[in-house]
Design a protein that fits this description.
The structure is a single chain. By secondary structure, the protein is α/β, with parallel strands linked by helices. The protein folds into 2 domains: 155 residues, FAD/NAD(P)-binding domain (3-Layer(bba) Sandwich); 98 residues, FAD/NAD(P)-binding domain, CATH 3.50.50.60. The chain has 6 helices and 14 strands. The strands form 4 sheets. A 6-stranded mixed sheet has the order 3-2-1-6-5-4, covered by helices on one side. The longest helix has 12 residues. The two termini are 17 Å apart. 40% of the residues are buried. The protein binds flavin-adenine dinucleotide. The site of flavin-adenine dinucleotide has 37 residues, from helix 1, strand 2 and helix 6.
Length: 281
């Protein structure tokens, strides 16, 4: 029986493994081959690692953990967990059952992009969701923000820190009242309610936002990646589902960049600290 099994070898899971391993606890970290920011070209806003590729960042962490014989990282998908007496059983995709005294779920979130034609090839390259991660590289440029209602409005105001050439694209009714519109106008942020037909780009670079009258799009959402993990024994560990606004930014003609997630904006450093707060090991 392991002292702890950590599901997820992202920054949060690996960080927890580092501390637990150094506390002489036998730790097993389980992870699928998927990682959240795989679409990103580089990591920003993390001290000592600014500009590093996300995969390289994870590899550095794993290399450093390799010197601890108390920590084992294994590629395996967890399909269920259940409580057993004082501990837990963790069931893997291939049917193997592992047991542990403590279980830490660090499976992160999955970003569900809005169903915009063309967005997949651009996300992480010229369409982003987090201004703190990626807006610096486009400071002072023309940016398009995608979002409706209070989320779109908030994102637009946030982005004024990086540029004064903004347009809020709501892809339909903006969902804003006169007061909101007046505030946006005061900050010189025009609101465009035209439906978005598709995003045109080349080599990952957004070139045009094509508007049309017959397409529609709902708010993008960020959903928990492992809702299926929440067996009855772990109801209290259900992960929240965050709604997010995809902020698309456009450079001159029409170039998008995504912007932030709603409530909290998760960054690598936050994911480490929040896990520490949440799980009182
Ligand atoms: C495009 C993009 C760009 C970003 N840029 C930055 C940036 O520049 N700076 C910054 O600080 N942050 C950035 N972020 C945010 C950063 O990626 C996250 O905050 C961070 O990855 C969260 O770490 P985590 O460990 O909580 O979750 P994740 O990194 O999502 O790790 C969770 C892990 O759990 C594993 N997992 C999930 N389900 C299972 C299962 N059932 N069984 C086994 N394993 C499972 C997954 O394989 C994954 O590796 C970016 C995010 C995105 C999407």
């Amino acid at each position: 029986m392991f002292d702890a099994i950590i599901i997820g070898a992202g920054p949060a899971g690996l960080s927890a493994a580092s501390i637990l391993g150094r506390c002489c606890r036998q730790v097993l970290v389980l992870n699928t081959a998927v990682y959240r920011n795989s679409a990103a070209q580089a990591l920003h806003g993390y001290l000592t690692r600014d500009g590093v590729g996300p995969l390289e960042f994870l590899q550095i962490a794993r290399d450093q953990l390799a010197r601890y014989d108390t920590v084992n990282v294994r590629q395996a998908e967890v399909v269920d967990v259940r409580s057993i007496g004082e501990g837990f059983e963790v069931i893997l995709r291939d049917g193997i059952v592992l047991s542990c005294r403590k279980l830490l779920i660090a499976t992160g979130v999955v970003d569900a992009l809005p169903p915009l034609v063309g967005i997949d090839a651009l996300y992480g390259r010229s369409v982003f969701h987090c201004p703190y991660c990626d807006a610096w590289e486009y400071r002072g440029q023309a940016l398009a923000i995608y979002g409706q209602g209070k989320h779109g409005k908030r994102l637009a105001f946030e982005l004024t820190a990086w540029s004064n050439d903004l347009v809020l694209c709501t892809d339909g009714p903006a969902g804003l009242d006169e007061h909101d519109l007046a505030r946006l106008a005061k900050h010189s942020v025009p609101v465009r309610e035209d439906r978005i037909e598709r995003l045109d780009g080349e080599n990952g670079r957004l070139q045009r936002i094509m508007f049309a009258g017959d397409s529609s799009m709902s708010s993008p959402v960020t959903v928990a990646s492992s809702a299926a993990l929440c067996s009855s024994a772990l109801q209290s560990v259900k992960r929240p589902v965050w709604r997010s606004n995809l902020v698309v930014r456009s450079m001159t003609k029409v170039r998008w960049r995504p912007a932030s997630m709603n409530p909290p904006i998760f960054q690598v450093c936050m994911s480490r600290e929040m896990r520490r707060e949440r799980y009182n090991w």
